[in-house]
Amino acid sequence: MTIEHTDPAHADLLGAEAVADPYPLLAALREHDPVHWSARYRSWFVTRHDDVLAALRDERFSSDRIAPYRRAKLDGPDADPAVRAAFGVLEGWMVFKDEPDHKRLRRLVSRAFTPRSVTGMTATVEEVAHELLDAVHAAGTGTVDLIGDYAYPLTASVIADMLGVPRADREQFKDWSDQITGLVFGGMGDPSRYAVGARGMTELTAYLSDLVRDHERHPADDLISAMISARDDRDALTHDEVIATGILLLFAGHETTTNLIGSGLLALLTHPEQLRLLGERPDLVGGAVEEALRYDGPAKTVARVMGEDVELRGRHLRRGERVFLSPSAANRDPAVFPDPDTFDITREKAGQLGFGIGMHFCLGAPLARLEAAIAIPAALARLPGLRLTGEPLRWHPVLLSRGMQRFPAQFTP
Ligand code: HEM
């Protein structure tokens, strides 16, 4: 462990060691510099549970971070029109809006994305999981990439199915979603990511626009139709809002849940006593998913922009400055979770912030929990003797999310 890794003064969450294991650095920040100014990222990093919780509930920590960027960088004559249009779609996402615009969108979308629509997906999730595991067996190699062969196609299929995207278009749909990742999550060392992301966004928007028009004429039992008809006595979603929200759900519903299935399986495979316990007590699966979210969840940080000046622990956060609130750090805060670095599927559940909290609390949390609670035990049951291969695991080098690029494993066919 180098000094750069744990010395808050040199904190770099995108350094190689911190990408592989961010927890020592997050612990050092939480303990010694809980409201940390990073000159490198020109941003604040907030790591204590009580501060992250309070900030997520505080409207002065604004979610409206796309429009200011667009105005500053993309309204000029030199800006690429495709990138400007792509950011225009992101601007329509509820997750990037403050009140009252956020509440209006969330209210209408919640009429379509209901708990019943999620429980209705149970059989589909089971079916897709088993199809993918059949394919892993059919390959006959006794090896599997639990991300690429399993978690990723599973979550992509489920959300595409829920939205009402025809099966034949799935591969294309998945490629566009991958391209857009660079726009939303950012990353290092890939200057082409805006151009690639914008192209994916343009094509996906055109595709969904046709699909929405088709659903307007021929409603079906799916989320796009439900969003088209979602209205209350005051309001309804516009055509463009249905498209933008469709892209948000596709995107939010897919990458993060992939990461949760991956890190949940990883935590179990590296804690054999917890794996054994889950085998003996399958009823603990809900606790295992919750603990995976806490112990190594997908939301490393959640971004905000200061809407006003705020003083926090003696530091002055000024209007317009960027802030990363870290659920990953908060979820290992010893002030809230005894023995926080221990993975314990019987742990008292309350308090983890892996889905955020407050007005932007993850709308898809019930779907993510359902998918993980089916996918994790299905893989363990169908891939006997599942174990790591010993190859080093490679993690996505991004600030916002925590997830493996590949998860190679072996099993006894
Ligand atoms: C394990 C998987 C998931 C994790 C860890 C996760 C995490 C989060 C977090 C931390 C937020 C809050 C963002 C903020 O405060 O700025 C959020 C919001 C959101 N998530 Fe998820 N999410 C997951 C799965 C899903 C799924 C499956 C869907 C939908 C299909 C979804 C849809 C959304 C939406 C629409 C929002 C915005 C809510 C709002 O702004 O009111 N998420 N998610």
TrEMBL record:
Protein name: Cytochrome P450
Family: Belongs to the cytochrome P450 family.
Alphabetized UniProt keyword annotations: Heme, Iron, Metal-binding, Monooxygenase, Oxidoreductase
Organism this protein belongs to: Actinomycetospora chlora
One Pfam family hit: p450
Source taxon at top rank: Bacteria
KW Zinc (keyword) present: no
InterPro entries with a match to the protein in the record: Cyt_P450 (IPR001128), Cyt_P450_B (IPR002397), Cyt_P450_CS (IPR017972), Cyt_P450_sf (IPR036396)
